[in-house]
Amino acid sequence: MLDLSPQTDHLVAKLDAAIAPHMDWASRIPRCVEGRPDMRRIRHRFAAWAMVFLVIPASAPAAEEMVLSKVMKEQGKSMQLIAGGIAREDYEQVAKASLAVIDPPHPPSTLAEKFRLMSFLGTNVGRFKALDGETKERATDLANAARARNGEATIAAFQRLQTSCLACHTEFRKPFQDHFKP
Ligand code: HEC
To answer: Whose CA is nearest to atom 39 of ligand 1?
Structure first.
């Protein structure tokens, strides 16, 4: 669901690369031919940077639903499909919905959301990812049981999958809501 650290490492590297050419301020101050700093061009550049900082927060309104919340809604739907599939012994549907739990459809999350999530998780990021990995493993077991058309094993695997969802909700749901939806 969320591959946080490789993505974040990648982003930080990209940001470093993007910022590096602008770090050498002294040699980059626009100068007139005579060598004096060109105040008009400096003012223009300052205005351009100010625009960048004004536009970034405006394009990431906090009120918009977070990608993580959208992913969770998809997970809820897949679980309903799985339960319905088990009731009808429709193992194709169970297997398909289990694969959707492993790789839920979702819009790409924004840079802003990744940073907000990272700062929320802090040192718990490893724990969060471990619980996410656990859910993926349980969903893989469920897909395999369903493909084998083994009713008992499918039901048992479904229960283990739900328990893994609960484990993360117990630890993170309330802190998440307190942090992002106070
Ligand atoms: C690694 C952590 C984690 C795992 C694993 C996880 N969830 Fe969640 N889930 C969350 C968090 C955090 C929230 C709170 C999100 C919010 O309030 O918007 C949440 C909220 C939800 C919601 C409520 C969404 C809403 O609109 O309020 C549903 C439904 C849900 N999860 C389903 C599942 C199912 C089903 C699974 C297992 C297949 C699962 N989750 C596994 C972290 C997790």
So the answer is: 165
Q: Residue of the nearest CA to atom 41 in ligand 1?
A: 165
> How many C-beta atoms lie closer than 10 Å to residue 16's C-beta?
10
Pocket test for ligand 1, best of 168, 170, 176, 177 (most atoms within 8 A of CB): 168
Q: Residue 45 burial by CB count (10 A; 0-12/13-18/19+): exposed, middle or buried?
A: middle
Whole-angstrom distance, CA of residue 66 vs CA of residue 107: 10
The string of pLDDT tens digits covering residues 71-105 is: 999 999 999 999 999 999 999 999 999 999 999 99
Q: Which residue has the higher pLDDT, 23 or 182?
A: 182
Gap between the Cα atoms of 48 and 54, Å rounded: 10
Q: Which residue has the tokens 């590297």?
A: 13
- First and final CA of the chain: distance in angstroms? 24
- Distance separating alpha carbons of residues 150 and 16, to the nearest angstrom: 52
Rounded to whole angstroms, how far apart are CA atoms 10 and 148? 39
CA of 35 to the centre of ligand 1 (A): 60
